[in-house]
Structure formats: structure tokens, C-alpha cells
Amino acid sequence: EPLAWSEDHRVSVSTARSIAVLEQLSDVHSGGQDMVIHRTAVPAPAAACMLKVGPKKEVAECKEKFASSVDPTVSQTFMLDRVFNPEGKSLTPMRGFKYSSWSPLGCDANGRCLLAALTMDNRLTIHANLNRLQWVQLVDLTELYGERLFEASYKLCKADTPCGELGDFPEFQRRHSMQTPVRMEWSGICTTQQVKHNNECRDVGSVLLAVLFENGNIAVWQFQLPFLGKESITSCNTIESGISSPSVLSWWEYEHNNRKMSGLIVGSAYGPVKIIPVNLKAVKGYFTLRQPVVLWQEMDQLPVHSIKCIPLYHPYQKCSCSLVVAARGPYVFWCLLLISKAGLNVHNSHVTGLHSLPIVSMTADKQNGTVYTCSSDGKVRQLIPIFTDVALKFEHQLIKLSEVFGSVRTHGIAVSPCGAYLAVITTEGMANGLHPVNKNYQVQFVTLKTFEEAAAQLLESSVQNLFRQVDLTDLVRWKILKDKHIPQFLQEALDKKIESCGSTYFWRFKLFLLRILYQSMQKAPTEVTWRPSHEDAKILISDSPGMGSTEDDQEEGTSKQASKQSLGDTGKGVDIDDTAEDSLHQSSDTGGREPMVEKLLEIQAQIEAVEMHLTREHMKRVLGEVYLHTWITENTSIPTRGVCDFLMSDDGYDDRTARVLIGHILKKMNKQTFPEHCSLCKEILPFTDRKQAVCSNGHIWLRCFLTYQSCQSLVYRRCLLHDSIARHPTPEDPEWIKRLLQGPCTFCDSPVF
User: Fold this and answer.
1) How do residues 81-130 score in pLDDT, each as one tens digit?
2) Residue 93 has what pLDDT?
3) Whole-angstrom Cα distance, residue 38 to residue 276?
4) Which of 99, 144, 315, 468 is exposed most, by the fewest CB atoms within 10 A?
5) Comparison of pLDDT for 21 and 568, the residue scoring more
6) Rounded to whole angstroms, how far apart are CA atoms 509 and 86?
7) Does residue 603 surpass a pLDDT of 50?
8) Which residues, 6 or more positions from 99, have their beta carbon under 8 angstroms from its beta carbon?
């Protein structure tokens, strides 16, 4: 499985040199119709991973002994096993990654996903993308687990029989197999209780990472959130699964009557599949199975390649259920699990006739339960589960990639979080009955939904967060840029939603549509804007003082300068407040452009109105936090009086909730104003603009969009789409201000870096 798609819309592609990470963005500052992707990489470690099976000197002596053994069953097994010899010597080096897995959203310091990566030489590490463009390794779990086993003398519990000597080849193999990772998978975020020094309990978020080893053991790591490194590891427990030759792993998480149950689904290379109970100590609301549940017990030599667990709602039984699907050879094994008064009901079967070759990759859309499988011949199958009175059946249809990309071979697939796109790794197929000389691996993106389906899903979304639905908004963005207008049905449906519930999500969705519409009206640049032009020097020379110039030269210089200005305005990431007027003046020079100018002015006015509404709503939230967490006449470092005056400055804004809240706050402040002061000249910084603060001496400071404090430092954060800026939290900030600073962008829901 070389592909994985995270909840925050990043695709990881495992290669021999690195993990390429492709991040999909729904860019509101670009007028291009193509999909916008930012690419970063997690490089493969330079040094080979040596598993810790004993003291270094003793291990070196044992390796030399096994390599020179007269028994060929020992020497050849040792020399050819790449777990024992990761550096390779005469063999090719085991460099690169064989598997990657994304955590749920909200696990790193920025509230995004962590990446667990498994290298070819069995090193398991966790990485985070903290400063936007660079990946940082937070912890090496292979090294930590090896140290734990070494301290425990390679026994799982004290009651185990004493282990043999390292010089015995079976013992040497056992110590390696008990710490050679096969697969790893993240659980959902769960809540644990932490006891403070004053005996108060507070809820702390945590996440589990299950690691399946070659000998069938499973290590369950528990991490406290946000995960910062080694210090965030809470515990590590090892479970014996009893599965021989394990091949794949997945979490089973089930909710029934507000009681959550969990377990681990393990598949074997020999065929069996079963659920292993996981005892989650100190985790609120979680229960576990009393004993393992066998889903498929036949040793039919069909290896389990991939397992997906999909939570669904059963329309006939009126309860939640779990659909487990596993790729076994060319077949798909499915199992429906639901809890009734009689206990745990298990229905299972196989779907046959899908592929003529073994399934090489499988992915699932967890929102509607659709499963996608592919074989190496370029054929992708879509399986849609349909419930019946007893269990379920699958409707399946063929997706021929050859009709889209020509003759290709497929190596992996992954579906986007909301099911809008399918990512496929392809290489050239056969041409005229001949295989290609060279293989060029490419990641292709195929749309699975129409614009109308994406728009309907965004309007009825339970998530109410644009950033978590980037794949859907990208389809909407493409449609508006292509047609240069917002479809009437979408405009009307959105206006009804805003009138009926008034959620800020729909206002942000409206802002997104207006910004894309504004971009579609912009004139596209005719040249590449980043390339330096030779005219710049001529303009500077003709305009410089003391240089004589003829009238023709001056006219030529002026026209060149105007053309350069036009390119700069249309080509850069457009700031709506600054560039609109310039582009309007340029477009109005040509006759017949007045309707377009009026249209752009109208869209710009609508954008400013929506932004102001969202700003006021967030200001009310900030003032609510100030009122709840302050005493009488306390300086909160938030410009409370300035925010209150800004909200009340517009006579047309009549919000009774805001007026009542401001009245209570002003009563608490007792005529105190607590103004901000410029750090350069100590003058008062008035609150006249939501974006910046300007003192009487002309010093300009940008305002934090989360707390409306002035960012009086050289270092601050920006949202993913460069919509707004925010300051960094400081140690003296109270907890409620730190909570405010953890929020996403108020305009586009993007995280802040």
C-alpha cells in the first residue's frame, strides 16, 4: 500500500528515496483551474536500522559465528535474511519506505495529522510538519521498543520462562521477529483522565498506535495530545495475538448506546482474520471484548493484503454496525458486525468475480461505505454496500483507467476524505504487446463526484469546516472558475441556509464562493510573473533624476511601467483590499469594460460585507471569553475597550446580544480602558482597524485575528491560505487566551502556522 490520504488532505507516497507528501489546497488567491498541490518530502534515513537484540559486542560475535557456520541452514538463512543484514554488503541496500499511516486530525502541535513511517529496514518513526515546509522526526519507536525489550531480558512478562542464549540461532531469530514491524495503524482520538496535584481530574486527549510484529505480537503505544515527542508517550502494552505469519492490521471501533468498544483486526498470510480484544485502561467510555472473535478461520493460503473497517448505520435494524472488508487474493472478504440483545452478530461472505489478478490495493470512503479495489492490470472496481433484511450485498462496477490514461499498470489507490477524488499510482502499460523499457511512476487524480454532488454535500455537511472538506471545495472552485459565475441553485440554497440557521460555516462558504468568483473575473497574466524582465532597467534609467530623455523615450518608459504594473497586479496572490482598484482602472481604459468594472466592484463590496460579518461574530466570541474569565477592572492584554467601540461604531449594526454583552463588560471594567501601547515609542495604539494598529508616530503593527491584539514582534503565524496572521502564545498567557490562539482561521477554517 504505497498510498495513504490523511484527514487534512495530504497524500503520502512511499518511494525508495523518501515519502513524497502531496498537500491539496483549495487556493482562493489563484485563478488557475488546475488542482493546487504543495509538495514536501520526508527523507529516508541514511544509516541502516540495526535492531537491538543484545549487547553490541556479543551481537557482533554472534553474527560472525552464524555467517561462518558450517551448517548451511544457519549460514545461508542468516546471510540472506535482510532483517539480520539491513546494510546489505554485497546485496542491494534496503533503502526507502514500505508503509505509511496517518493519525486522526488534531494530534500534532498545529492540530493536524502525524505521519507514522516504516522503512524497508524496519525502522518505525513518527514525523510532524510543524513549520509548514519541513518535516521533523519526533520519535524512533523501533529504538524505544528495543530498549524496553532489552531491559526486560526479552520477556513479555515476568512469569515467562527464561530466554535462551543469544548464541543460539533460534533465540537470535526470536529476538529479531519480536521487534520487526509488519504494519502500524492509528486509533481514533480518545479521552483519558489525568489527576492534578490538587486531586482534580481533567480530561486529556490521547491517541493509540498499534504496531504488528512478525511474531504476531502487537505493541499498543498510548500518546498524550498534542504529541511533541518522547515525553508525550504515556504507556506501551504488548498483546499476543496468536496469529502465525501476520500480514495486516486495522482498528475496530464500534459505538453502541453511547458505549464505545474497540479491538484490533489482524489478518494472516495463511488466510485467517480475527479481532483481538484491547483493554484500554483509564480511557473514558471504552469497553472491550471478553475474548477474540474469529471472522474467518480457514487456512486457505489466500493472504490477507489489506483490511478496512467502516462504521455504518443499519436502516433495518435501526442501530450502528461495522463493515469489515479485507482483500484476499482476487476476492474481497466482508464481515458485518452488529450488537443486538442476543449479543454480537457476525455475518460474513466473499465477493468474487471482481478481478482476474490479485488485488494490489484497497481503499474505502468511510462516509458512505463505498470500497475501491484495484489490480495491477489497470482495473479499478467500485463496491457499493446495500443493506438487506438479514445482512448486505454489494453492487460493483468497473472503472477502466485505460479510458482516461491509456494503457497503464496500477500499483496503489487512495480515496480522499470526502470521496471526491481517487489517487492512483500508475506506470506505462504494454504497447504493441511489449513492456516499456523504463517505468515512470506517476500519481494521477480521478474525480469521483460531480460538482452538483459536491455542492450538495457541502450544504448538508455535519462537519461544518471548509478545511476538512478541501476535496469538495476544490470541485466547486473548478466549476466557478470554468463558468465564471456561481450556479443559481447553489446561491439560493446557501441564502436559505444562512437565513434559517445563521451558522458562520455558511457565511465562510459564501465568502469562499465570492472570492473564487472574483478570481474568475480577473484578467490572466500573459507572461510568467516570476521571470525577471529586461525592461525594468530601462524604466529606472529613464525615470532617474538628472538623465535627459526625449518625449518618445518617456512615453515608452511609461507604457512599459504600466504593463509591468498590470502583470504584477493580476499574477500575484491577490489581496482583495489592495489590488481591486488597480485592476479596475486598467480594465476601464478599454471601451465596453464598464459592466465588468461594476460587477467586480459589486463582488468586492459583498466580500467586504461577509468578512465584516465574520469579524463581528468572532469579536463577540472573544468578548464572551473575556467576560467569563476576568475579574473586576482586570487588564486582560486583549484590547477589550477597543473591540467594544469597534463593534458599536457602525450605526447600521444592531445586534442585541452584542449590546448586552458589551454593557456587562463595560460595567466590569468600571471606566478603565487598558489601551495597548506601541513598543517602539510607547504611544497609545488606537483600535480603528481589525487588521492593523497604527500609533500617532506612524508605527504599524499587524493585529492577531484570533485575539485582536497587536503582534509587536518579528515572528508571528499565518493561516494556510495566507488569509490572516496570528501571534504566538506566550508563557504568561492564561489558559483561555491559549485556547483562543489554537483556533483556525475565521475566514477559511485553515490551520495556522
Assistant:
1) 888 888 766 777 788 999 999 999 999 988 899 999 999 999 999 999 98
2) 76
3) 39
4) 315
5) 21
6) 51
7) yes
8) 1, 14, 117, 118, 183, 184
Question: Could you report the per-residue pLDDT of 355-369, keeping only the tens digit for each?
Answer: 999 999 999 999 999
The residue to which cell 504494519 is assigned: 183
Question: CA angle, corner 751, sides to 749 and 753, nearest 5?
Answer: 145
The fraction of the chain above a pLDDT of 90, given in percent, is 57
Residue 443 has pLDDT above 90, yes or no: yes
Residue 538 clears pLDDT 70, i.e. is over it: no
Angle 406-408-412 from CA coordinates, rounded to 5°: 130
Query: Among candidates 546, 602, 604, 552, which has minimal Cα distance to 575?
Result: 604
CA angle 258, 264, 269 (to 5 degrees): 150
Whole-Å CA distances, 328 to 248, 296, 349, 360: 11, 11, 12, 10
In whole angstroms, give the CA distance from residue 692 to residue 642: 13
CA-CA distance, 607 to 581, in Å (whole number)? 14
Q: Using one digit for the tens of pLDDT, what is the confidence trace for 228-260?
A: 999 999 999 999 988 999 999 999 998 877 778
Of 274, 253, 248, residue with least CA distance to 263: 253
Amino acid at 632: I
Tell me the pLDDT band of 455, cut-offs 50, 70 and 90.
very high
Name residue, grid cell 465570492: 514
The DSSP code for 719 is: B
* Spatial contact of 487 and 479, defined as CB atoms under 8 Å apart: yes
Q: What is the pLDDT of residue 714?
A: 84
Query: Under a CB-based contact definition with an 8 Å cutoff, are residues 299 and 309 in contact?
Result: no
SS3 of 665-718? HHHHHCCCCCCEECCCCCCEECCCCCCEEECCCCCEEEECCCCCCECCCCCCEE
Backbone angles phi, psi at 458, to 5 degrees: -65, -40
Compute how many other C-beta atoms are within 10 angstroms of the C-beta atom of residue 141: 23
What is the 3 state secondary structure string of 268-296? ECCCCEEEEECCCCCECCEEECCCCEEEE
For residues 507-537, one letter each, b for 16 or more C-beta atoms within 10 angstroms of the residue's C-beta and e for the rest, the string is bbbbbbbbbbbbbbbbeeeeeeeeeeeeeee
Instruction: Choose among 336, 319, 251: nearest CA to 286.
Output: 251
pLDDT at 430 over 90: no
What are the structural domain ranges in the chain? Answer: 1-180
Phi and psi at 649, nearest 5°, equal -70, -25
Q: Which of 367, 366, 370, 326 is nearest to 348 (CA)?
A: 326
B/e letters for 77-93, b = 16+ CB within 10 Å, e = fewer, are: ebeeebbbbbeeeeeee
Whether residue 506 has pLDDT greater than 80: yes
Q: How far apart are CA 550 and CA 659, in angstroms?
A: 64
Task: Identify which has the larger pLDDT, 588 or 640.
Answer: 640
Query: What mean pLDDT is reported for the chain?
Result: 86
Please count the CA atoms within 13 angstroms of the CA of 223 that sit on its side-chain side. Answer: 28
Name residue, grid cell 477554517. Answer: 749
Q: In whole angstroms, what is the distance from residue 407 CA to residue 386 CA? A: 32
CA distances from 67 to 77, 183, 298, 467 (A): 9, 29, 38, 55
Left if phi > 0, otherwise alpha if psi is -120 to 50, otherwise beta: which for 398?
A: beta
Query: DSSP secondary-structure letter at 582?
Result: H
- The helix/strand/coil state of 513 is helix
Predicted local distance difference test score (pLDDT) of residue 524: 67
Question: 3-state class of 310 per DSSP?
Answer: strand
Tell which wins on pLDDT, 706 or 319: 706
- Cβ of 544: how many Cβ atoms within 10 Å? 9
How many Å apart are CA 5 and CA 287, to the nearest integer? 29
β-strand partners of 362: 373
pLDDT tens for each residue of 371-387:
999 999 989 999 999 99
